[in-house]
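Handout, section B. The chain below has 522 residues.
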Amino acid sequence: MLNRQGRPTAPGAGAANGHATFTGNRALQQEEALIFEFGRTDVTGVDLDEPAPVADRLGGLGRKEPIGLPGLSEPEAMRHYVRLSQKNYGIDTGLFPLGSCTMKHNPRLNEKMARLPGFADVHPLQPVSTVQGALALMDELAHWLKELTGMPAVTLSPKAGAHGELAGMAAIKAAIAARGEADTRKVVLVPDSAHGTNPATAALIGFTVKPVPAREDGTVDPAEVAKRAGPDTAAIMLTNPNTCGLFERDVVEIARVIHDAGGYFYCDGANFNAIVGKARPGDLGVDAMHINLHKTFSTPHGGGGPGAGPVVLSQRLAAFAPLPHVRLDEGRFSLVEHPSASDQSPLGRLTAFHGQMGMFVRALAFMLSHGAEGLKQASEDAVLNANYVRASLADVMSLPFGNRPCMHEVLFDDTWLKGTGVTTLDFAKALIDEGYHPMTVYFPLVVHGAMLIEPTESESKASLDLFIATLRDLAFAVRDGDTARFTGAPYHAPRRRLDETRAARQPVLRWTPPAPVPEAAE
């Protein structure tokens, strides 16, 4: 079977076209064994002299068995990791439509700036007199974060969004304790459409979580908030724009309800990329909000880090910002690292040092290269791109809240798949065969079989048109009953579909050599 461009789409077409190969390779798509399968544990890639005897200071805790790491020559090691890199998918490979994750292009200018001597080599334990430029950069980044959010204070030290949530909620907890209400204000309101880290963060630091349902249109009703707000309310944790890709139109009223009840308004800033230059959270009544520099301001995202999640704070919470923070005295910068040196009431430290310098450099480079109008246009283009995807697919995929404008991401559900034998997961796996990383699936939980797509501002119209055409072709295949294209997908990936339920419940975390297979006698 051929698709509309004449390319094969039949199940297993990539493997079936032509003969099977002895190596498992398919031309430039090379099969790659685990490093333990071809490396030898009895050799190393370098020659090391036997060390001289030393006194054992490990108290009996020294290793008693060989470490078991495979030895490789330099060419073997290089080829292994290059071939692995060719199996990876990233924003430099193609469109990365993960909704809620804002996988945007990382401008190479940012990378060049982060590699400048003095930034790339800075060490957190250097004398302050030798890092004045780094501290000046942190101070300027803090200034623009406050300017863009309309907030008077910011802490740069949190390492990622969830860590930022912890910082913001810890500041709220400290403020409540300072008011003498620690024993009474223990409830945090969390909408059903929130990121999962929101209730987890609140519970982690001792709050009780109370959910707030969404309206039929996917937004939060201030009347529902008012029903749940009271003298036991510590805060609400609200994402705006929310995870359904919609702006909370009653956000100012929600803030008023929470403040009237004596609580604080924590805003999840994961979706700030949609409103930078358009709306300032501080003007909406927000008391604390984390900012994912790796999302909104283009620093590298994923791969385990490094991340950065600065938190901006209102005047009500500014005094409780965690240490350290930058101070300018008579033209010299310093780091305030101890409560005794602060004229505020810091809640303490959340991390050993000041944050991730490379992320600060990249984020500030992004801000300065774009300027105010450029940052505003980035937000506008992100929203425009998401709405272009929505309008182009509305006739073949179902929209849970009606065909109405969205913000920076568009949410589809699985209503259009019912009765076809194809699930959201099947559809996502088929997208891998088309050369795309799938969109976010099954999130947010308020929508059944969710498919959340966020193209960001990085994508050109040509890029979006091809992505849209691909989704339409897949949708037509579903309607034509070509279920085999989906239920076994992906067919062309280096590995076929996993049993994800079994993998989660019975993970195999250690490689063991397979039993030798005896050869038949001649």
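Note. The CA atoms of residues 17 and 488 lie 17 Å apart. Compare this with the example in section A.
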